[in-house]
Specification:
Helix 1 packs across helix 6. The protein contains 8 helices and 7 strands; from the N terminus they run βαβαβαβαβαβαβαα. The chain is globular.
Length: about 260
């Protein structure tokens, strides 16, 4: 997909990978519709870009289906023709076993990580089919194909997004809409800060920068790539889990125990 002069929606655009995606896409002459729940971060992003002709910021709570529908109607009323969606927004759960998790947290994780991209994509699919070329990119996770201790619900949400994306790829195979599913490994973002998750200073986990991750995602869009694994950890665990799943699960349990404070 040629990105120049396209109009792309980016969710979770206020920080991390979403912020970097927005910055890099604008530099490629893409008009970005940047969605986030945080007003302050969106305003900071707008100031950083300093080019209102290439950016539209929109505050939204993706947990609420009604807000997603309101956003779609807003875009239609402004006569903005969308060429692509990057469903990047996501949250993790507290590092707890399922029996300890509050049901409200379970619903929130599923709503933001799975139902939000599902509903947003569903609303725009017919519009995307009308474009000469279009793209849907869903950011899953290494946790979407491999179980992490204390992240069962998060993993379930990302696994559901993975399979949804694979289904969309099949459905849209003979159309002008390319579909990409992304599996980031450990990324150096603040996704865990709100949950007070603290890594030990002795952790040797190698993190991919949001800038690097965003660059790889954009390249995948340009090449109409089906699947993208980001980071040596994601690539390695994808292979190891296929070869010996029991050993892989034991290995990640050992790593996580050394990495996170209990």
């Amino acid at each position: 997909m040629k990105l120049t002069n396209k109009k792309i929606i980016v969710t979770g655009a206020g920080s991390g990978i979403g912020k970097e995606l927005t910055l890099q896409l604008v530099n490629k002459d893409v008009f970005v519709i940047a969605l986030d729940i945080n007003d302050e971060k969106l305003n900071d992003l707008s100031k950083k870009i300093n080019n209102s002709n290439k950016l539209l910021i929109y505050k939204i709570d993706l947990e609420q289906e009604a807000e997603i529908e309101k956003f779609y109607n807003y875009i239609k009323n402004k006569n903005i023709i969308v060429d692509g969606i990057i469903n990047n927004a996501g949250i993790i759960q507290p590092f707890q076993d399922l029996e300890q998790l509050d049901n409200k947290i379970i619903k929130k994780v599923m709503n933001i990580n799975f139902y939000a991209p599902l509903f947003l994509t569903k609303l725009f699919i017919s519009d995307l089919k009308q474009r000469p070329e279009a793209s849907i990119v869903n950011i899953s996770s290494m946790g979407g194909f491999f179980p992490f201790p204390g992240q069962s619900v998060y993993g379930a949400s990302k696994a559901a997004l993975k399979l949804l994306t694979e289904g969309l790829y099949s459905e849209l195979l003979n159309t002008n809409v390319s579909v990409t599913v992304v599996f980031p490994g450990a990324i150096n973002t603040d996704i865990a800060k709100d949950l007070d998750i603290k890594a030990k200073e002795s952790s040797k986990m190698k993190l991919t920068s949001p800038k690097k991750a965003a660059s790889l995602i954009i390249k995948a869009m340009e090449k109409n790539q089906y699947k993208l694994y980001i980071g040596s950890d994601a690539k390695f665990m994808n292979i190891l889990y296929k070869i010996n799943p029991k050993f892989a699960i034991k290995k990640i349990n050992q790593i996580m125990k050394k990495t996170l404070d209990k």
